[in-house]
Design a protein that fits this description.
By secondary structure, the protein is α/β, with parallel strands linked by helices. Helices cover 36% and strands 21% of the residues.
């Protein structure tokens, strides 16, 4: 049988985050048996197929066995799933989230006094479920050692959630000297990190200036490269971004404001770039009361974010116009935006002027490439993992169709089927 393992419903959405997590665990016990791998071939009829690398095919049949796509052709039914009236595309990928970030029972951002690590992990499990139901089958969470336990639980195949990669704890200016930072990178690898996350710049709410020295940035990315680890760098402005690119860092996060020379350098070096244009700021502004007064979430901090939002769109449009930069997809999703990951694609197209197909590729095959998984996911082709999403509508005509996720399959297992 191929059924939803843990169906989402309005009742679940009304629960408090912690109660919702407990209900989720109960649902998992009931539905766990359906998570077993399917031995029989599964066939999916796609009225329209977007393959994740720019191809579009009409009225095709996708055959899946042992969690992988084995064939795409025009064979006739009967079909396991008939989506003749829908668009099928690869499971989407978000390269920058914070899976454990949440609003607590007091309606404020972050853990409340006395909150246990077990309670925090339940919030993360809820966020993972919401993200998967939104059609995102792979995510990269960058900022907490607790992500490792959730990653491993999801990988065991029972807990519903996207394939999860994690940086564990990030590296900051006060983490140590260049020599110490090299050792930290080695320790992160030993602890099981999939990627190294580094804060080369301050928060945009604190001006976004470069805070790590050139030597520190070079030490982190140099050591990671020697170990075969990817690096993603929180960086604003020409100076910090240039240093990170020249140090061989893999991916730049945020960026926001930089010169045309940076665009040329990213193009030349093949550096991946993950801007955050709309969802991040909309979420902050919509949930202002839940953030304000915590750390640098001040009146001045919110004013700085409003300025950054405007500048970010201008910089993004200039990057599209002047370069051939590998713009990948990430949202910086945190409390309030988990499960809304596709909204950033809509902002990039409608407000940023990105081509619809290019935006979809950024969240599928190009994102997979950036994660080092380009031969496994992000593309609907024989031999790839069966990560598939079916949506109502055609996102090449109307990008908002990505909100209408009716079906989610990850590794050949169906998690959602409306």
């Amino acid at each position: 049988m191929h059924k939803n393992k843990t169906p989402q419903n309005k009742f679940t959405r009304r629960l408090s985050p912690l109660a919702g997590g407990l209900l989720l665990l109960i649902q998992l016990v009931i539905a766990g048996s359906s998570a077993q791998a399917q031995d029989d071939a599964i066939t999916i009829r796609a009225g329209r197929l977007l393959d994740g690398i720019g191809g579009v095919r009409e009225n095709v049949t996708i055959t899946i066995a042992d969690s992988r796509i084995v064939r795409i052709d025009n064979s006739s039914g009967p079909y396991t799933y008939d989506f003749s009236d829908k668009t099928v595309l690869p499971g989407m990928i978000d390269t920058h989230i914070h899976i454990g970030a949440h609003f607590n029972s007091m309606g404020r951002y972050g853990p409340e006094p006395g909150q246990t690590s077990e309670q925090t992990l339940l919030y993360a499990a809820e966020n993972a479920y919401l993200t998967l139901m939104a059609g995102f089958t792979t995510v990269q969470s960058v900022g907490s050692s607790m992500d490792k336990d959730l990653r491993d639980a999801i990988a065991r195949g029972i807990l519903p959630g996207p394939r999860l990669l994690t940086s564990l704890d990030p590296i900051r200016v006060n983490t140590g000297t260049p020599a110490q930072l090299r050792e930290v990178v080695r320790q992160r690898q030993a602890d099981g990190a999939d990627v190294i996350k580094m804060f080369a710049s301050a928060s945009i709410r604190d001006g976004g200036i470069q805070v790590m020295s050139d030597a520190q940035i070079q030490a982190v990315c140099g050591e990671a490269n020697a170990l075969g680890l990817r690096t993603i760098v929180h960086a604003y402005g020409t100076e910090a971004i240039t240093t990170a690119i020249e140090a061989g860092c893999t991916q730049i996060e945020h960026g926001n404001r930089y010169s045309d020379d940076v665009i040329d350098l990213m193009t030349e070096r093949g550096t991946y770039y993950d801007p955050h244009l709309g969802l991040l700021y909309a979420n902050y502004f919509d949930n202002r009361a839940k953030f304000i007064g915590i750390g640098n979430y001040t009146e001045a901090g919110f004013a700085a974010m409003e300025e950054a939002r405007v500048i970010g769109y201008d910089t993004f449009k200039r990057t599209l116009e002047l370069g051939d930069v590998k713009i990948v997809y990430g949202t910086d999703a945190l409390a309030g935006s988990h499960g809304m990951n596709a909204e950033e694609l809509i902002y990039r197209v409608q407000e940023g002027g990105q081509d619809r197909m290019a935006a979809i590729i950024s969240a599928t095959s190009l994102a997979a490439e950036a994660l080092g998984l380009g031969e496994e996911i992000g593309t609907v082709q024989p031999g790839f993992q069966a990560d598939l999403v079916a949506i109502d509508g055609d996102p090449l005509e109307d990008i908002t169709a990505l909100r209408n996720v009716a079906f989610v399959m990850k590794d050949g297992v169906v998690y959602k089927n409306f």
